[in-house]
Specification:
Length: about 160
């Protein structure tokens, strides 16, 4: 909808992507298992000296970096496409201020690039929605995964 003139550009606003990420974060926290938290605070098979380094990294990764990366990735890709289209349209007025003929001449090139970017941004929006949804599903899946005993293989013959 944000590509239609006058339409609302929802995910091009950092507040919307932060709210989407906050919803994911709350769902992940409330549905995560003790196995997930156990691996975060006491990773098995890791020497004690390394745990002092690894545990803070895991905590920051799961509680700060993953949600922030989700929000910023979605926002930045959508915002960048809109900014490029706006820049291409503004170039017409910049060249038009130099000379009316140059402005009219460059408008054809600028509109062509803007239309190309419009279709490219449609593709990017679909891909980003897909990536955001898949990453949220993977992160929630990691948080709710059941414990599998060591040496237990789930093989299908």
């Amino acid at each position: 909808m944000g590509l239609i003139p006058g339409g609302a550009n929802l995910t091009g606003n950092i507040a919307v992507t932060l709210v989407l990420t906050l919803i994911f974060f709350v769902v992940m926290l409330f549905n995560s298992t003790k196995y997930y938290w156990g691996h975060m605070f006491n990773p098995p098979g890791i020497p004690l000296g390394i745990k002092f380094i690894l545990v803070p990294i895991e905590i920051m990764s799961n509680l700060i970096i993953k949600p922030a990366a989700l929000a910023i990735r979605l926002f930045a890709n959508i915002f960048a496409g809109h900014t490029i289209i706006l820049s291409l349209v503004c170039i017409i007025f910049i060249f038009g201020a130099m000379s009316a003929g140059i402005g009219y001449g460059f408008s054809i090139i600028s509109v062509g690039f803007a239309v190309f970017m419009f279709f490219l941004e449609l593709l990017v929006a679909a891909i980003q929605a897909f990536i955001f949804t898949n990453l949220v599903a993977v992160f929630i899946g990691q948080a709710i995964e059941e414990h599998h005993p060591e040496g237990h293989a789930d093989s299908v013959l």
